[in-house]
Amino acid sequence: MDDEKKFTDTVNHALKMRANIRHVFWLYFVMFAMLVGNIAHFVLIEAGAVVVNPFNHRVTGDSDALRGDILDSGGSLLAFTEPTEERVYTLDRDFVHIIGYDGFGRSGVESRHNLALTTISWEISQRANYLLTGRPPRGNSVVLTADYRLQRLAVSELNRSRGAVVVMEPSTGKVLAMASYPDFDPNTLAADWSALIADDQNSPLLNRAAQGLYPPGSVFKILTAAAAYHHMEGYADFTHECTGEAFFDGIRIQCYNATAHGTVDLARAFAVSCNTYFATVAMEMGPESLAEIAERTWFNTGLDFELASVSSSFVMDGLAHTGEIIQTSIGQGRTLVTPLHMAMITSAVANGGIMMQPYVVDHALTSIGRVTGKNMPRALGRAFDISEAALLTDIMVEAVENGSAWPARIDGVSVAAKTGTAQNAAGDDHGWFVAFAPAENPQVAVAIVLEHSGGPRRAMQMTRNIIQHVLNTN
Fold this sequence. Notes:
CATH topology of one domain: Beta-lactamase
Oligomer: single chain
Structural class: alpha+beta
Strand order of the largest sheet: 3-2-1-4-12-13
Low-confidence stretches: 47-55, 57-62
């Protein structure tokens, strides 16, 4: 019996040991799988962000290699590194919020495309040439979608006024120009850095075009009109008698300067920017309709733009009260939008309803001029139905031909546009203007916001000049 008991104990001990070994095996297997998963997540998802992080000083290329050049769309030199390793920006501050800077961290294209700028193509050939000529190896060049002449025009039109200008090609999403003021000179960054980061009042390091959030004012009526098309039965026959003011549950709303517009339908109300019409339509539709069009046009969604950017904000829901509904319908309330996003929305109307992903770098060039890293146009998705985009185009053209946007008229060119005046608790109203042209074959879309300008009049003239320049050079 003792021998049998010993045998049984031995077998049980062995079985217990095997069970413990299995437990340890599976523990280590799970830990190994988690490690592999974490490494895969880093390599496939996070590695790109780490590589272009402005504070990652390990990805700077070899010490004897120079950082690559940055060129405009026509090949003009915008940024280069001298043999002394000093970075030089040829147009000073004109491209600063696109190109950014290299030093004290990085920003803009210098940050996002750091890997391309520090990658040495044909390295053996470049190093052999270095031994023969003393010319250091150089990283790849990066070619922008923007042209320096249009960019300088945008900066000149902005004329040191606080605000931003965005110019896009509607069919591709190419950013043809992007200007923001206040700005700074990247060539004097070292001397100015302390003052720049301390200037909270002007925030010159902020790219207002992609990072500035503003109430949209009446340019939001593009979206309210789109919501009416989708959600308001009989919108085409609906008319409203505008007396210059209206009351909704005891809440008073006025048209600009209390102007009485008389009997207006959608096209006429849009052309003259009738607040009471759009407030009435919004109350008929309900807040869910405005929330739906905001979601469809990428509010509250990251745009995955190459440069640092923020999401436009739309916070109204189905429980909104009357005051919030009518204010939101005319671009006031709590809605906030970036100039870049308004340029994208305007471009989507011009592009038959398809919203394109904006981009500022077209491709990179190796040391022997071979194109690499070519960016191709990419659609984010459909923001408007084709018929909806056609309707919006028609009423935006009417706003120029017979409405408040008339200063943007161009002889022989059909311009589609919308004005906007955004109330500002901190001072004078902000002025907005968005437009595209030619309406029948859009080649350019523009969005401009001018802080504390009192209205859109100057922005309209700026847009007219920019559109004329683009059409004359295409």
